[in-house]
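Protocol step 4 of 6.
Sequence for Hydrolase (Streptomyces scopuliridis RB72) entered exactly as in the expression construct, tag removed. Do not edit the line below.
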Amino acid sequence: MTFKGVLFDFSGTLFRIESAGSWLRAVLDEAGVAVPPDKVRRYAMRLAVAGALPGGSSPERVPPDLAGLWATRDESAGRHRAAYTGLARQVELPSPVLYDALYDRHMTPDAWRPYTDAAEVLGTLRREGIGIAVVSNIGWDLRPVFRAHGLDAFVDAYVLSYEHGIQKPDVRLFRAACEQLGQDPHDVLMVGDDREADGGAAELGCSVHFVDHLPVEERPSGLRPVIALAGRGPLR
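Step 5 output, C-alpha cells:
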C-alpha cells in the first residue's frame, strides 16, 4: 500500500531525551550547585526511578496524590509541569530551585537527540510528496527542538496534546493530524513507540507501525522500514 501521509510520535520515535545523569549534571552546572560525582549518580538514579525525566523511564510508583494529575498530564502545560516536578520532588535534592530548573532543561534542544536515521527517513518521505505530521502527548512546544536539529523543514503539521486539551490514544488527536494533512485516515500511517497511546490511531482507520524505545546508539536504523511501509522504497 502507498500512504499519502505519515504521522510520527516525538519522544522515543524521532528523538530521544538525554540520560538522567546528563540532565541533572547540566542543571547543577547551570545553577552553580556543587555536588560530588557519586552523589550526582545517586540523585540521577532516584530521579529516573521516580519517573521525573519527561521522555525517560516511567515512574516505578506514582504517589496517590499525583495519580489524577499523572493520568492527564499531557492535556495542558500546567498539568504537565506539575506532574513532572511533583515526581521530582519525591527525591530530596540539594536546592529547591532545581526542580523547576530540571523541568525547564528538558524543554531545551540540547536535551534531545534525533535518531540517526530520522533526517534520512523524513527527507525521503518529503521528497516523495508524502505529508508528515508530528503527533505528540506533550505539555510544551517542541517545534524549537525540530528547528534546532534541522528537521522542521520536513514537517507539515504539529498536533500537540496540550494545544488541543486531549491526549493519545484519543482518536480526536489523530483525526486532527489527518485533517491538517488533508488525508483520509485510511491513507495514513502512524509511527510510534507506545502501543497503547500510538495504537489509538488504528481505531480511526490509520495503519500503525511501532518502533522500539531505545537509546539513540542502540537504534541506528529503526525508522528506515517506514520508507518501505509507505510504499516508497525497499525494506532495509
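Step 6, annotate. The domain at 5-16+112-229 is CATH 3.40.50.1000 (Rossmann fold).
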